[in-house]
């Protein structure tokens, strides 16, 4: 199998963390030139990463991929030990995906303070704060988001909280994690987890490449190479 993924993509990062946690070794990570050429829709009509390519077809959407991996490898699934835990894992994953990451993504268009529309930023980041407040009620007091072992809730939260910490201040908003107790304590603890640290390092690498221009150069080189191959 092959996962089309990018370092900085939080939705890709949550699947990579799940793959690491489940101990899966038969999934290759790739970012083909077709992504930069606007041809990802030829692989997946939604045109967004991550995308999982299997021998039997193509699976888009991170949460669908996450569930597919659980179904494919049930003995290694990290969904919680009881029905109640599994429900809480799903709730926290929904908070991370919908209230945190989705609104942050939409707010990225407002990064330039010269063209920023304050009403748009206030609306989107208000939903982020709402998500953080809800997360404070649902997250456990322990080392992990739910129960005493790493679950898919952690896989969703680590990239989402990384984006909160590194993106929201650039939008003129204080990091909302700092205003919490349980979420803040969790974020400090989970960053010392080996798998979380691995994903955070990958996302940090992607963010550095985005900010220093090396990502843009890499994309330009990939596009040039792909076009040269098409004309040869």
UniProtKB/TrEMBL annotation:
Signal peptide feature range: none
Occurrences of domain GST C-terminal (ranges): 82-211
A Pfam family of this chain: GST_N_3
Keyword Transferase found: yes
Cellular component terms per the entry's GO annotation: cytoplasm
Domain of life: Bacteria
Ubl conjugation recorded as keyword: no
Residues annotated as domain GST N-terminal: 1-77
Keywords from the named record: Transferase
InterPro entries per record: Glutathione-S-Trfase_C-like, Glutathione-S-Trfase_C_sf, Glutathione_S-Trfase, Glutathione_S-Trfase_N, GST_C, GST_Omega/HSP26, Thioredoxin-like_sf
GO MF terms held by the record: transferase activity
Name of this protein: Glutathione S-transferase
Protein source organism: marine gamma proteobacterium HTCC2143
């Amino acid at each position: 199998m092959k996962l089309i993924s990018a370092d900085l993509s939080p939705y890709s990062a949550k699947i990579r963390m799940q793959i690491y946690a489940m101990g899966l070794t038969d999934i290759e990570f790739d970012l083909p030139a077709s992504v930069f050429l606007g041809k990802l829709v030829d692989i997946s009509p939604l045109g967004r990463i991550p995308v999982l390519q299997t021998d039997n077809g193509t699976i888009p959407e991170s949460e669908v991929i996450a569930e597919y991996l659980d179904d494919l490898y049930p003995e290694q699934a990290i969904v919680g030990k009881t029905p109640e835990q599994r429900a809480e894992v799903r709730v926290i994953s929904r908070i991370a995906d919908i209230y945190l990451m989705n609104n942050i993504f939409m707010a990225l268009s407002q990064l330039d303070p010269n063209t920023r529309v304050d009403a748009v930023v206030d609306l989107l980041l208000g939903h982020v704060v709402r998500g953080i407040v809800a997360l404070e009620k649902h997250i456990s007091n322990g080392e992990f988001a739910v129960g005493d072992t790493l679950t898919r809730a952690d896989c969703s939260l680590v990239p989402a909280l990384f984006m909160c910490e590194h993106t929201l201040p650039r939008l003129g908003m204080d990091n909302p994690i700092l205003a919490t107790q349980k979420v803040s304590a969790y974020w400090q603890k989970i960053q010392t987890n080996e798998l979380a640290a691995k994903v955070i390092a990958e996302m940090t690498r992607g963010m550095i490449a985005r900010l220093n221009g090396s990502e843009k150069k890499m994309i330009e080189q990939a596009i040039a190479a792909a076009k040269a191959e098409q004309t040869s």
